[in-house]
Amino acid sequence: MLHGQVATNWAKVTKVDRILVVSDTVACNRIRKTLLVQAAPPGIRVNVLPVAKMVELYHDPRILSFRALLLVENPRDAQRLIAGGIRIEQVNIGAMSFDSTKVMVTDTIAVGQDDLAAFSWLYAHGVQLDVRKVSGDNSKNLWKFLKDKKLV
Q: Do 140 and 131 contact (CB within 8 A), yes or no?
C-alpha cells in the first residue's frame, strides 16, 4: 500500500504532510502496521486506522490541521468511508492483484464480485474512478474499462 510510487510520487505531488492508511485488516496486523509506518517518506507521518475510526476522526475539527492522503486496501473500504460521511470525489486505483476469483480489467487491475459491487456503488454516488500508477500518467476512467469488459 505504501510503496515507492506513493512515497516518492503521490505524496510529493499532492503535497501532503500525512498519509492515513485506512484498513481494518492492516490496523489489526502489528507487523504490517509497523512496516507501513517505517516506509514513510521523510517529513510525512503515517497513521494506520480502522475504517470506523477514520470516519469518526473525519468529523473532528482537528483533522483540518493537516493535509492527508488516504490509502485504502480495497474499494469496499472506500465505499465504507464515503457511506460514513467522508467527502471523496475521486478514487485513484493504482493496482489490484489477480487471483482465480478475479477478472483482469487492465494490465494492473483485477476485480472480483465484491470489487464490482463497491465500484458500482461508488460510481452511482458520483465518485470518479481514476486509473493511474503515478501522477504523470494519463488519467483513465475505470468505469469505461468495466463497461468495455461487460462487467457492469
A: yes
